[in-house]
Write a structure and sequence with these properties.
This protein is mainly α. The chain is about 75% helix and about 0% strand. It has twelve helices and no strands. It has helices at about 10-35, 40-60, 70-95, 100-110, 110-125, 130-150, 155-180, 185, 190-215, 225-255, 260-275, 280-300. α2 packs across α3 (about 70-95) and α3 (about 70-95) packs across α9 (about 190-215). The longest helix is centred in the C-terminal third of the chain and has 34 residues, at about 225-255. Mean pLDDT is about 85; it is low at about 1-10.
Length: about 300
């Protein structure tokens, strides 16, 4: 019996969740910015993934998924919790203390590079010519957006470099988690239940780090703060990560990272509506190139495994 043809990345089953994840994560940068007023970043990350982990546990229960993890499964969930839900977000939140949310989003688009390299080294996935061309066009657009943000950003050189450095560490942590999700190990365990465990492990590590760095929990009673926690925990995490990881397992880490390429464009569009962001010709050209590169790359064939 012949094997069924592999699903193509242009099908609605891939493009719809890809678009939804991109729209959600494009909006989270504004919400994260609002989380930095009173509560230390690590406590905000803790609250976010406590909400997300509990929500994922409810979803897993409804879907009939059991937490049936062996030793390797617990190690896998712990690694995802550490890399994705602790290191990644702790460094992203700290980066936004130093530079604008738009610049953090732009720098984070470089996730494409370590995702592609790690997928090649650890998974044997090769970037075809079309994916390389799309990557080059998109990265040229990101470079223009970065140049624009660096020019108009209010932070000084030292703060800008610190923010970029924090974002760079976050990118490496996220990339490790992305590649882990594309391994055969990830497919051995039910996704929802495993993600619930990973998020709760991440929240526990976040809480330990927060207590060590800043002391006991800090609570802000502002309604907008807790509305933001719910949005980031439910939509930005419990909804978006399962969708993203499903796409990643089909099209590979390199192509899945294109969500981070178009996210800064969405973040800037939302900033235009809510923060009075003004587009320059340079920024508009960068956004256009990022979009063109995205289309070229996502039309490429699936990566070789």
């Amino acid at each position: 019996m012949s094997e069924a043809p592999a699903p193509q990345s242009t099908r609605a089953a891939i493009l719809v969740p890809f678009a939804l994840v991109t729209l959600i994560w494009g909006s989270t940068w504004l919400v994260i910015r609002d989380q930095l007023a009173v509560v230390p970043p690590s406590w905000s990350v803790t609250y976010r993934f406590l909400v997300a982990g509990l929500a994922m546990a409810v979803v897993a229960k409804v879907k009939g998924e059991r937490v049936a993890l062996d030793g390797r499964g617990w190690m896998f969930a712990g690694a995802i919790g550490l890399f994705q839900f602790c290191l990644n977000f702790n460094f992203v939140y700290r980066a936004e203390h130093h530079i604008t949310s738009g610049l953090v989003a732009v720098v984070f688009a470089l996730l494409l590079v370590p995702n592609a390299l790690l997928a090649r080294v650890l998974l044997g996935q090769r970037m075809g010519r079309q994916l390389v061309v799309g990557s080059g066009v998109a990265m040229a657009g990101i470079a223009l957006l970065f140049l624009h943000e660096a020019r108009v950003g209010p932070a000084g050189t030292a703060a800008t470099l610190a923010g970029i450095g924090f974002t760079g560490v976050a990118i490496l942590a996220a990339s490790m988690a992305n590649v882990l999700q594309a391994t055969p190990t990830a497919r051995r365990y039910p996704m929802m239940a495993t993600l619930a465990v990973a998020m709760l492990i991440g929240a526990a590590i976040d809480g330990a780090v927060a207590w060590w760095l800043t002391g006991p929990p800090v609570v802000e009673m502002r309604a907008a703060y807790w509305a933001g926690i719910l949005y980031l925990g439910l939509a930005g995490s419990a909804l978006a990560f399962p969708l993203y990881y499903r796409v990643l397992r089909v099209i590979g880490p390199a192509k899945a990272a294109y969500s981070s390429v178009i996210v800064p464009v969405i973040a800037m569009l939302l900033s235009t509506l809510f923060e009075g962001y003004r587009w320059s010709p340079l920024a508009a050209l960068g956004a256009a190139l990022a979009g063109v590169g995205l289309v070229i790359a996502l039309r490429a064939r699936r990566p070789n495994r």
